[in-house]
Amino acid sequence: MEPAGIDLDVAPGQTIFETALAAGVTWPTVCFGQARCTACALKILDGHQNAGPVEPEERDLLQQMASRRRRSAIRDTRIACRMTVLGPVTVDKRGAKRQTDPEANGDRNE
Hints:
Number of strands: 5
Helix content: 10-25%
Structural class: alpha+beta
Mean pLDDT: 87
Largest sheet: 3 strands, antiparallel
Order of helices and strands: HEEHEEE
Radius of gyration: 13 Å
Strand content: 5-15%
Strand order of the largest sheet: 3-2-4
Number of helices: 2
C-alpha cells in the first residue's frame, strides 16, 4: 500500500479494510466499514486483474462518487470496506498508516 509502504496479506473473502484494521493500520473512515461514507476509497495502482469483483453495494457507492466527480477521477477507484482481492494488488490510500502507539485507538476520522 502506497504511500505508506505497507504490505497486507488479505485472506480470501476478507476486505482490504478489515485486513488493514486487523494489522494495526489506521484507515480513514467515517462509517467504520458500513459502506456509507466512501472515506475508505482507494486507488488501484497495479494488479487490476487481481481485484475482486465489484458487488452491487460497492457499484452504487462508486456511481455516487462518479456523479460528484469527473468519471476519469474515479476510474481506478474502489471502496476498501467492500474490495476483496484474488492476488497481489498495489493500492494508493492517503492517510492510511501503521499505528505507532499500541495504546491508541486510532482516530479513523482524520
